[in-house]
Amino acid sequence: MAILCRLHDAYGDRLIEGLRAALPGEDLRLWPEIGDPAEIDICLVFRMPPGFLAQFPNLKLVSSTGAGIDHFMLDPDLPRHIPFVRVVDEDFASRMADYVCCWTLFHHREVAHFLAAQQRHEWSYRTMRAAREVVVGVMGLGQMGGLAARRLAGLGYTVRGWSRTPRAIEGVQGFAGPEEFGDFLSGTEILVNLLALTGETRGILCRDTFARMPRGGVVISAGRGGHLVEQDLIDALAGGQLRAATIDAFSQEPLPPEHPFWTTPGLFVTPHASSTASLESTVNTLAGNVLRFRRGEPLLNRVDLSRGY
């Protein structure tokens, strides 16, 4: 049997070279050099068009080469009877927490104001509130969101979290389920989105959500592009319901040069760069699950396709 690798290009040839070194004896095929599709029993895939996996009749394991699996869920021919795994580890979560803390501090300390003042050659002093006076709400308290919430609490922020089911995190006020979503938003000044993209969370960053936050709030979204209703964000910024936003993931990537986000006042764009697992971590996780599968051992980071994460 053989392993098909359709990999992202973040690490160039180093990723496939690392996998070959970690999996000696395995027949690794780099897309588009598939060979006989019937010989493929494992796919390591970054992104794929709908129907891609259906061409492999003996497929027994699929691994996303990143944390996201929403591109899989859009495939109507997805082989749901086989296991799916993804790359999520402490390294990935730690880099995501760094991103969240960076932008939370950026907005709390009004760095954009000082950068603009510098461009005008203007000495424009502002007083700053203590971190404990700023309420940060984290949507999604899984491996990444939970660590981000703990890091924010460690910086002194007043932190609250919202998740599908109750989660207990020291130093974080917890809210759960749709019945507590409004209460969660009503006191949240800086809203951080680290949710998985599911049918229930698609479009959650919308006019109604922004309206439930205190006026002049901030949104930081490092989830998925499908979480955001783009025009609602533009309108909320234009109307002052939100004073700023940082968005890392978009429905269309790369973001087209003509997209209004590039020139929307108060909106900061990052190119889906909030977190990437290190090369070593990616190789170890991908190869580790291949070896576990070959030995019949439990897989790491297995996806529940019924939930979408």
Automatic annotation (TrEMBL):
Molecular functions (GO terms): NAD binding; oxidoreductase activity
Pfam family, one: 2-Hacid_dh_C
D-isomer specific 2-hydroxyacid dehydrogenase NAD-binding domain boundaries: 105-273
Keywords in alphabetical order: NAD, Oxidoreductase
Gene3D superfamilies: NAD(P)-binding Rossmann-like Domain
Matches recorded under PANTHER family: 2-HACID_DH_C DOMAIN-CONTAINING PROTEIN (PTHR43333), D-ISOMER SPECIFIC 2-HYDROXYACID DEHYDROGENASE NAD-BINDING DOMAIN-CONTAINING PROTEIN (PTHR43333:SF1)
The protein, known as: Glyoxylate/hydroxypyruvate reductase A
Organism from which the protein derives: Roseomonas mucosa
